[in-house]
Amino acid sequence: MITDSLVLSAILFVVGTFGVLIRRNAIIMFLCIELQLNAVNLAFVAFSRMWGMDGQVFVFFVMTVAAAEAAVGLAIIISIFRHYETVDVSNFNVLKW
Amino acid sequence: MIDIVFYVLAAVAIGSSFGVVVAKNPVGSLLFAVTTLGSLAGVFVLLEAHFLAAIQIIVYAGAIMVLFLFVIMLLNLGHDAPGDLRGGVFALLSFAVIGSMAGLLARQLRGEGATESLTAGGQAIDLAMAEHGAVGAIAQPLYTTYVVPFEITGILLLVAIVGALALAKRHV
To answer: Contact A62/A40 with Cβ under 8 angstroms?
Structure first.
């Protein structure tokens, strides 16, 4: 069960990374980052079956940080949308060289 | 029995995570994400993390996903979504690289003795849950060993609220 959970976590992390790399819609990129965070949470919970309760406490912290990150990230997306009228990241190339 | 439930939940999670990546409409993508989070909550229950499963449903699938849905509806992105996948060669290359990395990792994990099912940690969790209950077992380390990080988390949330307000306000 622990090994299977870790393999599931690896698969979900790969799918999330793939989504971040191939999508251009900023909101869906954010969703894929949440997917990656959840894969890591699953790995933490699986390892907590081996090493004790500390892993579950870390999952609690990861969820809090994810909530804060989602709030700030979506606020950034809203203010970018107000400026450019789009959320397609290929239009945001000011910092690209 | 538990193994069958686990494999069904894992299949739902993997399938709907692919749905998140390939769905054209952002709302569809978001509903796939809710399905993934729900089945992961089921996996948490199977791994004896009952409190985290409840938090996963309430905070993640409930609050954070509704926040995403609010933003999608507010920006009116729910219809006429243009396709936004990047070109084929780049996608295949990136999938090959990260897929082979994860494959190596999974092979290591499958190896002999990498993970054990009956260990001191699992027994300690079972003991703590029998003594304090599902919530008390996680509250015990959270309010003793990890009390300083816990308080810092509160400050982080306050900063995030102020930051989100300052960013999304019309005239800064």
So the answer is: yes
Flag if B125 and A49 touch (Cβ within 8 Å). yes
Q: What is the pLDDT of residues B106-144, one digit of tens each?
A: 777 776 666 666 677 777 887 888 888 888 888 888 899
Q: Please name the residue of chain B whose CA is at the shortest distance from the CA of residue A50.
A: B121
Contact predicate A37/A62, CB 8 Å: yes
pLDDT in tens, B36-80: 999 999 999 998 889 999 999 999 888 999 999 988 888 887 776
**Residue of A17, A25, A52 with shortest CB distance to B124:** A52
For chain B, the domains span 1-79, 120-172
Closest chain B residue to A89 measured between Cα atoms?
A: B84
pTM: 0.88
Q: Do B159 and A61 touch (CB under 8 A)?
A: no
Q: Tell me, what's the pLDDT at B32?
A: 94
Domains assigned to chain A: 2-89 (1.10.287.3510)
Is residue A64 within 8 A of residue B153, CB to CB? The reply is yes
B134: Cβ–Cβ under 8 A, 6 or more apart, which residues? B50, B51
CB contact under 8 A, A79 and B125: no
CB contact under 8 Å between A22 and B85, yes or no, is yes
CATH architecture under which domain B1-79 falls: Up-down Bundle (1.20)
